[in-house]
């Protein structure tokens, strides 16, 4: 009952969050400039596609505008600080995937586009996993501690899990809705035990394939059509590379924390300082998930850990 009375109304909380996100976006000049440029480009594409009657592209543009706000929302809501360089990478990744990749067909124009994005995805997912565990590692409220090596391993495993789940999603969309998210590839040799006439589980090799016919019609691809396997494995391999790169960066960062490793710190999220808690500055009440009793308990714990705190009669 007490919590519901003290909790501000939804409209007030929404305005507070909106103000805090606005302050967060403007915090770093570099990432703010990138955000503004990308936002203008997305709006321009949305207007153009609207007048062309391509409403699916308009929907993707609206989704992109929301995703561009995601880094600021995460920083405000969870009180973590994304370095400007990492935030720019996230913004560019969203724009490259949705606007350039989907709407401008860069996936088809540039065969390497999907590979580059999956590499970035592995890097970013590892950064997210690393920051989650590192923040728990350094929290006074959670008894949780991992060595730098195990922290890097968890970061790597988190990234690979995200990559695998995404491939599950692509496969499901292809099977259930007839999409082609797992892009096909043309190969010129295959090996299959299904071609063994003796059914003895021996792989039969066919090389120099230059023509494949389906239902009597030549596909005109100049080779055999691989249905997504190569694309899936390439995606997981480059995700692996991105995950390894950030895990190594995270390991070095934790191992040398406080020793002035400035370059690495530009890619590692950290907990927000009190003066940059924009949700609080915008009028929020700190951790809204805490009931008044829990807030009092937290204040008591903080006073107990404050060496300058003295009780007065």
Percent strand: 5-15%
Q: Outline the biggest β-sheet.
A: 2 strands, antiparallel
Oligomer: single chain
The ordered string of helix (H) and strand (E) elements is: HHHHHEHHHHEEEEEEHHEHH
Structural class: mainly alpha
- Number of DSSP-assigned strands: 8
Our measurement of the CA-to-CA distance between the termini, rounded to an integer number of angstroms, reads: 32 Å
Shape: globular
Spans with pLDDT under 50 lasting ≥5 residues?
Answer: 285-313
Q: What would the average pLDDT be, to the nearest integer?
A: 84
Into which percent range does the helicity of residues fall? 55-70%
Strand order of the largest sheet: 1-8
**Number of helix segments?**
13
> Number of domains in the coordinates?
2
Topology of this structure?
Blueprint: H1 2-6, H2 10-25, H3 29-51, H4 55-68, H5 70-78, E1 80-81, H6 84-103, H7 106-109, H8 113-137, H9 148-177, E2 185-187, E3 190-192, E4 204-206, E5 213-214, E6 217-218, E7 224-226, H10 229-255, H11 262-265, E8 270-271, H12 278-281, H13 292-305
Antiparallel strand pairs: 1-8, 2-7, 3-4, 5-6
Helix pairs in contact: 2-5, 3-4, 3-6, 4-6, 6-8, 8-9, 8-10, 9-10
């Amino acid at each position: 009952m007490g919590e519901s009375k003290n909790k501000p109304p939804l409209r007030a909380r929404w305005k507070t969050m909106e103000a805090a996100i606005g302050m967060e976006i403007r915090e770093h000049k570099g990432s703010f400039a990138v955000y503004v440029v990308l936002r203008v480009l997305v709006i321009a594409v949305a207007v153009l596609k609207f007048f062309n009657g391509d409403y699916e592209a308009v929907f993707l543009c609206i989704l992109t505008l929301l995703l561009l706000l995601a880094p600021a929302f995460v920083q405000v809501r969870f009180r973590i600080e994304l370095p400007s360089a990492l935030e720019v990478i996230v913004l560019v990744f969203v724009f490259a995937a949705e606007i350039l990749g989907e709407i401008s067909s860069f996936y088809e124009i540039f065969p390497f586009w999907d590979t580059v994005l999956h590499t970035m995805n592995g890097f970013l997912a590892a950064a997210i996993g690393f920051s989650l565990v590192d923040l728990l590692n350094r929290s006074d409220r959670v008894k949780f501690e991992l060595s730098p090596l195990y922290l890097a391993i968890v970061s790597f495993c988190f990234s690979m899990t995200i990559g695998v789940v995404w491939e599950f999603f692509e496969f499901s969309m292809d099977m259930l809705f007839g999409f082609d998210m797992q892009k096909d590839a043309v190969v010129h040799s295959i090996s299959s035990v299904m071609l063994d006439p003796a059914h003895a589980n021996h792989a039969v090799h066919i090389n120099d394939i230059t023509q494949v016919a389906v239902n009597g019609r030549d596909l005109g691809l100049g080779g055999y059509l691989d249905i997504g396997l190569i694309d899936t494995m390439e995606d997981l391999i480059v995700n692996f590379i991105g995950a390894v790169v950030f895990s190594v960066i995270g390991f070095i960062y934790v191992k040398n924390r406080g020793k002035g490793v400035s370059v690495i710190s530009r890619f590692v999220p950290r907990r927000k300082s009190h003066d940059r808690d924009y949700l609080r500055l915008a009028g929020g009440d700190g951790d809204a998930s805490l009931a008044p009793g829990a807030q009092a308990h937290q204040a008591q714990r903080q006073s107990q850990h404050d060496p300058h705190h003295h009780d007065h009669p």
